[in-house]
Amino acid sequence: MVFNDGQVVSVDADTVIGRIVTAPGVPVIVDDPEVSRRHWGARVVDGRLLVTDTGSRHGTFLLEPGADEPRRVERGQTVEAPVGTRISFGSSWADIQRASPAIADR
Predict the structure, then answer these.
(1) pTM score, two decimals?
(2) How far apart are CA 100 and CA 26, in angstroms?
(3) Per-residue model confidence (pLDDT) at position 13
(4) Residue ranges covered by each domain of the chain
(5) Which CATH class is domain 2-95?
(6) E strands within 4-105?
(7) How far apart are CA 72 and CA 51, in angstroms?
(8) How confident is the model over 53-77, as pLDDT tens digits?
């Protein structure tokens, strides 16, 4: 994943993205007041990147390749984020790229 603040993160283990992360997993800290402490999580299962909104206040949105509008990930919902997806949260975003060998091209 490549974040708008320049962070590049390879999801090789459970990853938690937020403003202040105090949860199990690999923390990714985002300096954005609109991002919840534990905003969303990512993990790879069978070559697919799965994204879960962990109860964020402002929501997590996925804009998948070819889509005209982003779709909201509901609190507690887990969805697949294919390569090329942009994940928006707060005023931040992350692009899904095949940087991790665990993520399959689909």
Answers:
(1) 0.87
(2) 15
(3) 85
(4) 2-95
(5) mainly beta
(6) 15-18, 26-29, 40-45, 48-53, 60-63, 71-73, 78-80, 86-89, 92-95
(7) 11
(8) 998 989 999 999 999 999 999 999 9
